[in-house]
Amino acid sequence: MAYVLVTDGIKEDGLQPLLNESTIQCDIGSLNEFSDRLNQYEALLVRSATKVTAEVLNQMPNLKIVARAGVGVDNIDLDAATKRGVIVVNAPDGNTISTTEHTFAMIASLVRNIPQGTSSLKSGKWMRKDYVGTELYGKTLGIVGMGRIGTELSRRARAFGMNVAVFDPFLTNDRAQKLDVESVEFDHLLDVADIITVHTPLTDKTRGLLNEETIARTKKGVFLINCARGGIIDEKALIPYLDSGHIGGVALDVFESEPPEHNHPLLGYDQVIVTPHLGASTKEAQLNVAAQVADEVLYFLQDKPIRNAINLPGFSKEEYEKIKPYYELTRKMGSILSQCMKSAVNLVEVSYAGKLTELDTAILTRNLMASFLKSRLDTTVNEVNAPSIARERGITYGEKHSSETHGYSNLISVTVQGDKETFSLQGTYIKEYGDRITQLNGFDIDFHPQGHLLYIQHNDRPGVIGNVGKVLGEHEINIATMQVGRKTAGGEAIMMLSFDSELPKNIEETLESVQDIVKVEQIGGV
Ligand SMILES: NC(=O)c1ccc[n+]([C@@H]2O[C@H](COP(=O)([O-])OP(=O)(O)OC[C@H]3O[C@@H](n4cnc5c(N)ncnc54)[C@H](O)[C@@H]3O)[C@@H](O)[C@H]2O)c1
Ligand SMILES: O=C(O)CC[C@@H](O)C(=O)O
């Protein structure tokens, strides 16, 4: 049974994949409510209220994955999680449309004084002259951060006849052209924009991006919007510009500290409109993000690759479908290599050839390394911390793409080097036959790596195969499959046998005493 804790009121409708799984127990409540059993949870699902600090991670020694039902992961200590090998995933696009629409609603409300007009009329006044607005048509919207939300917002702004100037250091000219926006430097955006909206994460570079100095460059009457993260616009810096009338209005969905103090100075300004972090608060977005993270956690608990990990290379659904078979193959290859090469290892070289080279193979290499290290260490190893654990243990690893396919449509070749020996393995995935090991330490062979295996090095002499069968038969061990390979007739040879169940511990020694058998290794649980 896997134990999962869901906090922060994540929408239960979206959690159905987890709630319906009989091998998973899903508890719903806060960290405090379940404080006496935090050590049992393998997965933790949160929105923004739960702070996943290093201390919380320490109280959850079994934790393997933290899923954020939303985009921003600033409530999770990523460094501490990565060090511990805890995967952090988010739901990157489940609330994009809702947050975009909220931002657009804030812009429209701000320039047309809708909240102010509403409260004035509700207080019994009819003040049409006080609330003369500004048209969006023909105005320039400055978007800082052209990611998912920035991009969707630019489409809506263009539909309203606005010009769009964008600052995003990662935006290519080609993409800007396709999106029909002008890619500009930050200073230029400050000079030309009538309305500036920020859509970046809060980082050391974006904290206080709009501050006393940069706001001074903006056009008189500028409108400023923050529906991303509190702190990207420096709240204190707004005050003198609101007082002087330089700023036409401000719309904030997020605050440096949430909730803001009741007497927060910005709340006293009529030109400042606010919402309590409602960007993602729609039925649709909450269902989307809950379903996305529930699927991710379920995939993870079922040993399938996940798509939206923050501390791992990510891939799209399409890429995932393509990479899935190789993910399984690299896991098996890592495990076989680790069990065949028992001595200390200092170098692992992975080479990919054929169609595979079109994919992002970095995740496959991490997966292979995690599987290789896992059977050698008594600590949590996964794709997240495999690079740092390998480094700590003095194991260098690298990958390359090669054109040597040896006739296969795709081929993964791995060489593991130690001080005393070297071990190599080649594998491929064939749609009709599944994963196959095609070469082992220079011997051509062809077997499906599955279940309990026995690897035997022997001399190619008459009777050896029969003797192996006899010894196993005497121990009532039934051979499921058997493959033999040799380099030259009468020279060194290998056998790979597979079995339906676990083998007795001492079977290697018994077999090694058979004439012409050089070495026997059990390879368990592949
Ligand atoms: N108000 C809400 O409820 C709500 C909901 C969803 C997302 N958000 C926040 O909105 C932000 C954007 O979300 P998204 O899904 O579009 O993210 P995203 O990752 O798709 O886009 C972020 C963009 O910011 C750009 N960027 C990074 N550093 C920058 C810098 N120094 N200057 C300019 N651009 C920079 C990146 O290149 C990227 O294109 C996130 O921080 C998220 O936390 C808020
Ligand atoms: O959970 C929420 O409603 C806020 C989500 C939002 O800030 C995000 O980063 O996705």
TrEMBL record:
Gene Ontology molecular function terms on file: NAD binding; phosphoglycerate dehydrogenase activity
SUPFAM superfamilies, alphabetically?
A: ACT-like, Formate/glycerate dehydrogenase catalytic domain-like, NAD(P)-binding Rossmann-fold domains, Serine metabolism enzymes domain
Q: What is this protein called?
A: D-3-phosphoglycerate dehydrogenase
The record's section on CDD domains has: ACT_3PGDH-xct, PGDH_4
Protein purpose: Catalyzes the reversible oxidation of 3-phospho-D-glycerate to 3-phosphonooxypyruvate, the first step of the phosphorylated L-serine biosynthesis pathway. Also catalyzes the reversible oxidation of 2-hydroxyglutarate to 2-oxoglutarate.
- Fetch the Pfam families from UniProt: 2-Hacid_dh (PF00389), 2-Hacid_dh_C (PF02826), ACT (PF01842), PGDH_inter (PF19304)
**ACT domain sequence ranges:** 453-525
| Pathway where it operates | Amino-acid biosynthesis; L-serine biosynthesis; L-serine from 3-phospho-D-glycerate: step 1/3
Q: Which UniProt keywords apply?
A: Amino-acid biosynthesis, NAD, Oxidoreductase, Serine biosynthesis
Family listed: Belongs to the D-isomer specific 2-hydroxyacid dehydrogenase family.
Q: Would the keyword Amino-acid biosynthesis be found if you checked this record's keyword annotation?
A: yes
